[in-house]
Design goal:
With 457 residues, the chain is an alpha/beta fold. It folds into 3 domains: 231 residues, Tandem AAA-ATPase domain (Rossmann fold, 3-Layer(aba) Sandwich), CATH 3.40.50.10810; 86 residues, no CATH class; 65 residues, Zinc/RING finger domain, C3HC4 (zinc finger) (Herpes Virus-1), CATH 3.30.40.10. Helix content is 38%, strand content 15%. Strand 9, helix 4 and strand 10 form a beta-alpha-beta unit. Helix 9 crosses helix 12. The radius of gyration is 27 Å and the shape is globular.
Length: 457
């Protein structure tokens, strides 16, 4: 904008004004639908831009392009680069024998690594990935860092220094809008890379259904997020007519209901009946809220049993197969085997309790959530209930809904589930779902491949 004092630069998201041009982030989020070529697009960007080292004056060794991805797609990145960019010098930085000397990273155009490697090197910034200032850093499957307090996200924030940063993910929002904060922090989208600001201007208004929160979120996504889906239309450059972005045959959706094996059905019915009795008992005692984590544990076990009995802990599976254990022992095996950490992980999304303000003392750091979804400090809400003098029950200070001390849920700390945990007692065994899957594959091959091959002969 032009003012009497000169040119003023205005941030539309925050309504802040500056006399000097603000530093704009270089990069963004590529959130194209699955199958639309996010990997190929990124390779094209690497080829189209100058292959120069970082010019950052951070005291770190200069590097070119860093791609961080899950181990499951590391090989695909390597193969796609060989196929579409054979002129690039590509290094796969993975394994126990990797050379961590800072100078070695500048010898390659593209360095491929995994989130696990980055997390393993988080403590040492003098060598390895943390010792390099990159020209471009790319996070593939960027939703991996959605939990901004998790070790993987913290390693990305602390170690990755780059002039240009890109996040590739088909699902930038998985559980809640809070997932976007990790991407904003990685991209350094000031001031939204500070959680206090992100929470105050976006998360809290959204929770209160304040239209300003939606407007800011739309503005941010419109500015630094590009998303294209398979059903979008574009204008044909030759004919000028509208056509689908991607010409695909019509999708055929077939729902296949998989019956449980007779043996698994018996085990499922035993566990289901026991779980139903437990829930009914808790309801009669008015203790369902206090023991909500146990109910979630039972649901997880029932879902695992639907997929495959081999997913159940050995102790629980033994109790179910014997069929002579009482309900108490069965429940103990079903819930205790889940472990405290797993239960806390299930409760992690109940509320954003740590950053929200307590409605009693107006301070942050809440650790208790009520059945009506409001958060308080434990000391504040317990003191409020004691003052009521009604045997540990009363009205929520915020919405005046009924609450009980026995139903207060404690917000667990942020935890991270790491694939491949040691000590797992998962055992071998085929499931009905896998058997039906292979039957369908075999039927398809017989109908569409083998029959055509025989006909040609």
């Amino acid at each position: 904008e032009v003012s009497p004092s000169g040119i003023v630069y205005k941030n539309l998201a925050t309504n802040s004004a500056f006399k000097k041009p603000p530093r704009l982030p270089r990069g963004g989020i590529l959130a194209d639908d699955m199958g639309l070529g996010k990997t190929i697009t990124t390779i094209a960007l690497i080829l189209a831009s100058p292959q120069r080292e970082s010019r950052a004056t951070t005291g770190k060794s200069p590097g070119k392009n860093l791609v961080i991805c899950p181990l499951s797609v590391l090989y695909n990145w390597s193969e796609q680069l060989k196929l579409h960019a054979p002129s690039l010098r590509v290094r796969t930085y993975h394994g126990p024998d990797r050379d961590r000397h800072p100078k070695t990273f500048g010898l390659h155009d593209v360095t491929l690594t995994t989130y696990d490697v980055l997390r393993a090197e988080a403590r040492d910034k003098t060598q390895g990935l943390g010792s390099v200032a990159w020209h471009r850093a790319v996070l593939d499957e960027a939703h991996v860092i959605k939990g901004h307090r998790q070790a993987t996200a913290q390693a990305v924030f602390q170690l990755v220094t780059a002039e240009c940063k890109w996040c590739l993910t088909g699902t930038p929002i998985q559980n809640s809008v809070e997932d976007l904060f990790s991407l904003a922090r990685f991209l350094k989208l000031e001031p939204f890379d500070q959680f206090d600001w992100f929470n105050r201007t976006i998360l809290r208004p959204l929770k209160n259904r304040d239209v300003s929160g939606f407007e800011r979120l739309q503005l941010l996504l419109r500015t630094w997020c590009l998303r294209r889906t398979k059903d979008m239309s574009v204008q044909d450059s030759e004919t000028g007519l509208s056509r689908p972005l991607l010409m695909l045959p019509r999708k055929t959706l077939e729902v296949v209901k998989v019956p449980l094996d007779p043996g698994d059905r018996v085990l499922y019915d035993r566990l289901f009946n026991c779980a139903a009795e437990r829930v009914k008992e808790l309801e009669e005692r008015s203790q369902l809220g206090q023991n909500f984590s146990q109910v979630l544990s039972l649901l997880v076990r029932l879902r695992q049993l639907c997929c495959a009995s081999s997913l159940l802990p050995a102790a629980l599976l033994t109790e179910l197969r014997q069929g002579k254990g009482d309900a108490a022992r069965l429940l103990e095996a079903a819930t205790a085997a889940l472990g405290k950490d797993k239960v806390e992980h299930l409760l992690r999304n109940l509320a954003q309790a740590q950053e929200d303000d307590c409605s009693i003392c107006m301070e942050s750091g809440c650790d208790i959530v009520t059945r009506c979804g409001h958060v308080f400090h434990r000391g504040c809400i317990e003191a409020a209930l004691r003052q009521l003098g009604q045997g540990g029950s009363g009205l929520c200070p915020l919405c005046r809904g009924p609450i009980k001390k026995s139903e207060l849920l404690e917000k667990p700390p942020e935890l991270e589930v790491v694939e491949g945990d040691e000590g797992s007692d998962i055992h071998a065994g085929a499931s009905a779902k896998i058997k039906d899957h292979w039957k369908a594959v075999l039927a398809f091959l017989v109908e569409n491949v083998f029959s055509k091959s025989l006909g040609c002969c």
